[in-house]
Write a structure and sequence with these properties.
mainly alpha; 407 residues; single chain; 0% strand; disordered N terminus; disordered C terminus; 17 helices
Length: 407
């Protein structure tokens, strides 16, 4: 099988794999071969989110219809992250007797240092906006400043529909991920004995639940029928649909079930191309008709099976996809978490200070600055903090496999 490579090949640059047998650590995560292609996919998904924000901010608002449609649904990059998160965590921990406390500590070490960095660099702008801008987007935070700050620091903001986007808006998804992590040890045990048929049924059933929630919103239109496709971020029920951790949980569990299927598979690796093609075809079709589909159908789990198919296919490592394992792509994937957290801030400021340059050059500078900032944050903040904070027991685990924050 293409995925069965020697354990020594898993070690990240400069780190030797543990010489202690895995069975010596029954409560820690297992070591599995690297899935570098999935690490690179994180970067591509983050780029889709960036396109969405470039269009929303008016920086790249024009262009051909297909680009505009694709950029308009860039928020589905976060849906992809949720599915990928469940898949990778199962791949990493499925064969272990998971110690919940060690797992949660490892997750804290993974997400919180870069999260705090992103909050720190966006805090001055956030405070300035609350003091000087009278826009609907900031009304809730202005009225509930202490709650906005506290809930964001504690990763609770996604539970507050009108406060989910407070401070650094992209951080709402980390609040959702924190909820997923709190449930993961329980969900891992509950899915352990599932048959392949049951796993497939679960993927279909959970995707239909996500669809049913969206259809219910469209049917009852609690925010008003004219608000269904609105970009208004102050709508209570639409925000509940978009950001609530319980509503988004099916996407994560779909990823977990796909991970279980992958580990129990009796399937040829070359079929990975079929899975990738099918999943990508769905995304292309949705892009083509995006203007005809109500936003809530796309934004809340509707595409989870397509994302699961792409992830499953890339994990099978068909020969043509191995360019995704090239070190530059993998490094960008490893830094994609910081890219996701920092890109909006960096792009906004880079675009502002280059106002005298041609528009195309300004956009290029914005993108280079965002990627550069993410690489610096990854190497100077994420990696050192993770080494300092993660549990010391257990074998070394490759970052490219074990990362599963909204990356």
């Amino acid at each position: 099988m293409a995925i069965e490579r020697p354990i020594a090949a898993q070690a990240p640059l400069g780190i030797e794999p543990s010489a202690v047998p895995e069975k010596s650590f029954p409560n820690t995560r297992s070591i599995r071969p690297r899935l570098d292609g999935l690490t690179s996919l994180r970067f591509l998904a983050a780029c889709h989110v960036i396109l969405f924000h470039l269009k929303v901010q008016g920086i790249l608002a024009g262009g051909p219809w297909w680009y505009q449609n694709f950029a308009d649904i860039g928020y589905i990059g976060v849906n992809f992250f949720f599915v990928l998160s469940g898949f990778i965590l199962v791949y990493t921990y499925a064969s272990t007797d998971l110690d919940s406390k060690l797992f949660w500590r490892a997750r804290f070490a993974r997400i919180y240092p870069a999260y705090i960095l992103a909050l720190a660099v966006t805090a001055p702008g956030f405070i300035f906006a609350l003091q000087h801008l009278k826009l609907p987007f900031y009304v809730w935070s202005q009225r509930h400043f202490a709650l906005a700050v506290t809930s964001t620091l504690l990763l609770f903001q996604a539970w507050i529909p009108q406060g989910a986007l407070t401070w650094n808006p992209v951080c709402w998804s980390l609040s959702v991920e924190a909820f997923f992590y709190s449930l993961f040890p329980f969900l891992l045990r509950r899915t352990r004995a599932s048959s392949r048929r049951r796993l497939l049924f679960g993927i279909i059933f959970l995707s239909l639940i996500s669809l049913a929630i969206s259809v219910a919103y469209l049917s009852f239109h609690p925010d008003g029928v004219d608000k269904i496709n609105s970009s208004d971020v102050t709508l209570f029920w639409k925000n509940l649909l978009s950001f609530n951790p319980i509503v988004r949980l099916p996407e994560f569990v779909v990823g977990m079930l796909a991970g279980r299927l992958f580990l129990s598979r009796k399937i040829k690796d070359w079929l990975g191309s079929i899975f990738i093609f099918c999943g990508a075809t769905v995304i292309v079709l949705i892009t083509a008709v995006a203007t005809e589909i109500p936003n809530p159908l796309i934004s809340a789990g509707f595409l989870s099976p397509a994302f699961a198919a792409i992830i499953f296919g890339v994990a099978l490592q068909p020969a043509w996809s191995r360019f995704l394992a090239l070190r530059p792509f993998v490094l960008l994937g490893e830094a994609s978490y910081s890219l996701y957290l920092l890109h909006s801030f960096v792009i906004e400021h880079a675009f502002g200070v280059t106002s005298s340059l041609p528009h195309g050059i300004r956009v290029l500078i914005c993108l280079v600055a965002a990627v550069g900032a993410s690489l610096i944050a990854y190497m100077l903040v994420e990696q050192p903090a993770r080494r300092l904070l993660r549990p010391k027991a257990g074998p070394t685990v490759v970052p490219g496999i074990a990362e599963s924050a909204t990356q």
